[in-house]
Amino acid sequence: MSYGPARVLPGEGIKITTNPDTEAFWEAAKEKRLTACQCGDCGHFRMPPSPYCPKCQSTQKAWPDLPGTGTIFSYAICSKNPATGSRSSPRRWTGRRIAVTSLP
Fold first, then answer.
1. What are the residues facing 99 on neighbouring strands?
2. Looking at the DSSP assignment, which residues form a beta bridge with residue 98?
3. Pairing of strands 61-62, 71-78
4. Quick one: CA dihedral 72, 68, 93, 9, positive or negative?
5. Rounded Cα–Cα distance for residues 54 and 50 (Å)
6. Taking Cα atoms as reference points, which of 21, 18, 22, 19 lies closest to residue 51?
7. CA-CA distance, 50 to 32, in Å (whole number)?
């Protein structure tokens, strides 16, 4: 089953706090690109992004564009509005799908 690329990013009602370790990820998302933090020295991917590579302790980062394909291991459908905590009405259901994936 294929759903294609995500079309909706969090709206103005949801505030995402960035820091120097996550800002590049969110900037790419605004441009509809999928990226992940990769160590600039050893190439190890780390998500969530962190100041140091857990494998070699390097502070060098790269943000390569990813293809947006992978294997889904698990997913959940959230049917509550993240801003209010209330359930969406059946006619205006806007459930969000959250997945745990492995990217190639």
1. 75
2. 76
3. unpaired
4. positive
5. 8
6. 21
7. 22
Mean pLDDT over 72-100 rounds to: 68
Query: Which helix (H) or strand (E) element contains residue 23?
Result: helix 23-30
13-61 residue pLDDT tens: 666 778 888 889 988 988 889 899 999 999 999 988 999 999 999 999 9
Query: Within 10 Å of residue 34's Cβ, how many Cβ atoms?
Result: 17
Residues with Cβ within 8 Å of residue 17, at least 6 apart in sequence: none
Q: How far is CA 104 from CA 13, 90, 98, in A?
A: 33, 36, 19
Closest CA to 58 of 39, 43, 38, 44: 39
Tokens 């441009």, residue located: 31
* Residues sharing a CB contact under 8 Å with residue 61, sequence separation 6 or more, in sequence order: 24, 37, 38, 39, 40, 49
